[in-house]
Amino acid sequence: MGRMISQLVLPFHLLLMLGVSLASLNDHRYNIGDEVPLFVNKVGPLNNPSETYQYYDLPFCQPGELLPEKESLGEVLNGDRLTNTLYQLKFGAEKDGVVLCHKKLDQNDVSKFRAAIIKDYYYQMYFDDLPFWGFVGKIEDELWTLDGKGPKYFLFKHVQFDVLYNGNQVIEIHALSDPSNVVDITEDIDLNITFTYNVRWNETSIPFKNRMARYSRASAKPVNHQIHWFSIINSIVISVLLMTFFAVSMMQRLKNDLRKWSSGDEEEDKEVGWKYLHGDVFRCPPNMPLLCAVIGAGTQLLTLFCCLFILAFLGVLYPYNRGTLLTSLVIIYTLTSAVAGYSSASFYCQFIETGWERSVTFSTVLFLGPFLLMQFFLNSVTVSFGATLAIPFGTILVIILVYTLVAIPLLALGGIIGNRRRSEFQAPSATKKCAREIPSLAWYRKTPGQMFLAGLLPFSAIVVELHQLYSTLWGYKISTLPGILFFMFIILMLLTVTLSIGLTYIQLTVEDHEWWWRSIFRGGSTAVFMFAYSIYFYCKSNMSGVFQTTIFFVYNTCICYAFFLMLGTISLRSSLMFTRHIYHAVKSE
């Protein structure tokens, strides 16, 4: 019995090990002279936010022994590589002109620094869990040089740390480079450089609980913030008016159809085209295991998004909380495997009694399979470039172990529960043996035309917020807030539901009963527009290079594919509810 309990506890213990230990207030209290933890993290070009390398890949001053900080799974996946440094910042202790080290740079070292300055490299450090940034050097064009020969490249050799504190807690930190304290590295020659730093401490009234707020405030100017809110309110108003008008029109049209149906007049009866499909509209859809897999994967991703919003509202997820978002993604996705298994199996068993295992298997492979293939390709690219985003082999083994011991059993458990709680599909009317022939359709009534319309309208409502989201994902500023994202996500789902119902009704009125798969493609078509916009966003940005381009499009492909499955599931379920309702109303008449 004890052995069985230990086997059950082990997988969940592994999940807890992946989490981030959240520091309490007491963990950030110091006395005068106490050593405050400071770690160097990574360096990279400013215009390519995903292209980062370890701090000591550049020939900075190194301690005698490099001691990497123990990191969570999310920090590793995020490319964080915290390491000790020679900088020593003691609480409340000011320093002037402290020598960090005397460094002899050979021609190769000079060339590395110059290449970094040309690409506008920055460095990132963490002080008391607060991130801060600084630049490696500067470029002076020939117009600004005394001899008229240029450009010239200068390496910053002095840093001033400005720290704000409140009582015995650190609130804010900045790293400022002295433009006059530089060394010319334009030519490939050996150099002897003395790196120095200052430390300044100033008191502030900002409370400790608000010290992360400045990272959100740095997102935009007040004018841009007002424009952002105006655009969002405009999108919400237009969406609400559109959905209200559409709903009223649909209700009036359905009432007229039901009145004509119940009147018994043959001439009026012929105008209600969808009533002829009562024996075909609930026919078992083709490729049933795959369709149920879409439902399972889409429901799991929808649950994942809802959980992330809840964590954001609870304050667990906030800007620059190292690795918490990615750790939450891994843990929640693992635990929601049961949702995928249950949704897939329960829907499948409504139509077919045996073979639900295939749909459950497909539900986990449908999203995770392509995602892992892309990650394998991406990891190969990052390893070849030596970037920090490369996932170590040990981390890969941990992820495989967690998925094998936790996700797969939960997936199977969800499938078993869904199978045992199955109920026969309650169609309002009996299904005919032979399927009704579908008449020829105009081009705009076919799948591509309906996908264009069903994707364009929701995309138009969220495009402003989508731009802000991309700016947050592929930049350094927090351009959006969880509350705004949540409202736009609700608008997106409501528009998807409304358009799915309306287009399904239009499809049935022309006596086309093959609506199952088309409803999925209609709902998921918004993701196609999202991906197209990502191409536009990349072309307008300053990102460049093979590495950053690969990272950008691989991750955006995964994000848009997840939205395709999620919105397709929402569209299918809403169309099914609508179809059941109208044919049940016909049966009642």
Can you walk through the features of this model?
The protein is α+β, with helices and mostly antiparallel strands and 589 residues long. Helix content is 54%, strand content 13%. The chain contains 15 helices and 11 strands. The chain has helices spanning 2-18, 73-77, 107-118, 213-217, 222-263, 266-269, 288-313, 324-335, 337-348, 356-385, 393-420, 447-473, 482-509, 516-540, 546-588, and strands at residues 38-45, 53-54, 95-105, 121-127, 130-135, 137-140, 152-156, 158-166, 169-177, 182-184, 191-203. The protein has a 4-stranded antiparallel β-sheet. It has a 4-stranded mixed β-sheet with strand order 3-11-8-9. A hairpin with a 7-residue loop joins strand 1 and strand 2 (53-54). Helix 7 (288-313) runs antiparallel to helix 9. The radius of gyration is 29 Å and the shape is elongated. The chain starts with a helix and ends with a helix. 32% of the residues are buried.
Give the helices and strands, then pairings:
Blueprint (H helix, E strand, L loop, with lengths): L1 H17 L19 E8 L7 E2 L18 H5 L17 E11 L1 H12 L2 E7 L2 E6 L1 E4 L11 E5 L1 E9 L2 E9 L4 E3 L6 E13 L9 H5 L4 H42 L2 H4 L18 H26 L10 H12 L1 H12 L7 H30 L7 H28 L26 H27 L8 H28 L6 H25 L5 H43 L1
Parallel strand pairs: 8-11
Antiparallel strand pairs: 1-2, 1-4, 3-11, 4-5, 6-7, 7-10, 8-9
Helix pairs in contact: 5-12, 5-13, 7-8, 7-9, 7-10, 7-15, 9-10, 9-11, 10-11, 10-15, 12-13, 12-14, 13-15, 14-15
